[in-house]
Amino acid sequence: MDTPRWLDDDQQLAWRAYLRMQGRLSAELNRRLQAASGLSLADYDVLVHLTDVPGGRLRPYELQRALDWEQSRLSHHLSRMQRRGLVERRECADDGRGAFVVLTEAGREAITAAAPGHVAAVRHLFFDVLGPDQVDALRRLATQVTTRLDAAGE
């Protein structure tokens, strides 16, 4: 059996700081978004992906891939959003077994109303404390890590 490659002290501190930041940032953004709009971060993520495509509709597997969620999580979450009138499921005319997740007018109105406050919170809590070089470094780091994750999943 191979000997584990433990994190050195600097890596351990960086990793724990990242986990703490990510957890606290997500919790705070979720809290603010819910208080201001009634949307969760998960709702917002779904709505963003639907507003980013022509016609506001995606196949469930496309949405699942874009969000990187398990199928059951997506299915349950879409059911909750559907009950609230934010999305609906429509059969695909070309494929009797297929379906689309479609953004409703209420869903579009909800994200349109929520987006300015959410972007302001992201800017205030995250980007306003970073300089341009740090933003560039963050983009490069995130790209490197996601590229590694993409390769590991193949």
Automatic annotation (TrEMBL):
This is DNA-binding MarR family transcriptional regulator. Pfam families: MarR_2 (PF12802). Gene3D superfamilies: Winged helix-like DNA-binding domain superfamily/Winged helix DNA-binding domain (1.10.10.10). GO terms for biological process: response to stress. Transmembrane segments: none annotated. It comes from the Bacteria. Residues 11-147 form the HTH marR-type domain. It comes from Streptosporangium becharense. GO terms for molecular function: DNA binding; DNA-binding transcription factor activity. Keywords: DNA-binding.
